[in-house]
């Protein structure tokens, strides 16, 4: 039986492609040969593949013809008396897939390319453990390559991957709209990219709005009012009352709002330079100088938590 499985989409190349088949995929008593797109041949056991993959299970449930029962021109390929199944994936992808299926240590998915190839293979051959591991790896990779992971999620119609990556992209610099453009963008539509940009803008607005709404400051030990340092704005308590806000508080909130519009994630308001600048302003007031350090520490951590909550409430519209 010869079966050709076509790969969908495209894949970035990897410098670590397998060049030789190794144990345990060379076993003499195997009952099937998987032949990769680069001609590497893996001697495997059908029962292991059938248990791990519903696709292989269904394939093997069909009768396998013997070499001598068909006319020569219709005979499927055999190698050393074993049926050969051609797959569209390269040798590295096949080997990693098999390692997940076999009772052996799982391969490490440290690079985007490997996580990508395993997500595709796991989905194509319906192997849950591979899909799960690939998504976990992509969540780590998205910490530094969020746009790339987002594009992959869109390309494979994997909504949870797309949403996860979009969320993680908020901590990364805004993408340049000047050439050279991120190469992965060619795999998604302009509409999808605009949806991502709109999501980021809405997150920025929601996060920055916290600097104007003070209702989330519930801790009475956070002192943010002062009548001695010529404050430029007032602080509105939850009870509705207003008091003059300390100058450092007004400055911090202004800088925090600007930072959040650019990168709406909690850590943005814990920037050491921003905190240091705020304390410098506080030190110029005889009243604020003694209490600003504790208040700012509590305030900034609370704001960071509230930013994450605010961003969580923003939804990303995707067409899949
Ligand atoms: Zn003051």
TrEMBL record:
It comes from the Eukaryota. Gene3D superfamilies: Potassium Channel Kv1.1, Chain A. InterPro entries: BTB/POZ_dom (IPR000210), SKP1/BTB/POZ_sf (IPR011333). Residues 30-102 form the BTB domain. This is BTB domain-containing protein.
């Amino acid at each position: 039986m010869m079966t050709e499985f076509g790969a969908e989409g495209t894949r970035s190349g990897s410098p670590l492609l397998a060049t030789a088949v190794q144990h345990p995929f060379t076993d003499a008593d195997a009952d099937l040969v998987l032949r990769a797109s680069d001609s590497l041949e893996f001697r495997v056991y059908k029962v292991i593949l059938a248990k791990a993959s519903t696709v292989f299970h269904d394939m093997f449930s069909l009768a396998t013809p013997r070499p001598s029962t068909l006319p020569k021109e219709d005979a499927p390929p055999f190698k050393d008396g074993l049926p050969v199944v051609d797959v569209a994936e390269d040798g590295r992808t096949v080997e990693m897939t098999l390692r997940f299926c076999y009772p052996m240590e799982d391969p490490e998915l440290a690079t985007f390319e490997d996580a990508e190839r395993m997500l595709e293979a796991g989905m194509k051959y319906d192997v849950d453990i591979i899909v799960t591991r690939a998504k976990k790896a992509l969540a780590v990779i998205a910490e530094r390559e969020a746009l790339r992971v987002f594009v992959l999620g869109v390309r494979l119609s994997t909504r949870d991957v797309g949403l996860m990556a979009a969320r993680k992209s908020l901590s990364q610099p805004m993408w340049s709209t000047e050439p050279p453009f991120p190469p992965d963008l060619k795999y998604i539509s302009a509409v999808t990219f605009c949806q991502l940009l709109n999501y980021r803008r809405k997150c920025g607005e929601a996060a920055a709005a916290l600097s104007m709404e003070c209702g989330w400051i519930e801790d009475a030990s956070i002192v943010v009012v002062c009548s001695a340092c010529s404050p430029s704005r007032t602080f509105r308590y939850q009870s509705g009352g207003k008091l003059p806000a300390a100058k450092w508080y007004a400055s911090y909130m202004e800088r925090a709002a600007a930072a959040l519009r650019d990168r709406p994630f909690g850590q943005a308001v814990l920037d050491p330079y921003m905190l240091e600048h705020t304390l410098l302003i506080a030190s110029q007031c005889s009243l604020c100088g003694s209490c600003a350090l504790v208040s700012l520490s509590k305030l900034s951590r609370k704001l960071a938590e509230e930013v994450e909550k605010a961003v969580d409430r923003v939804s990303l519209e995707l067409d899949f």
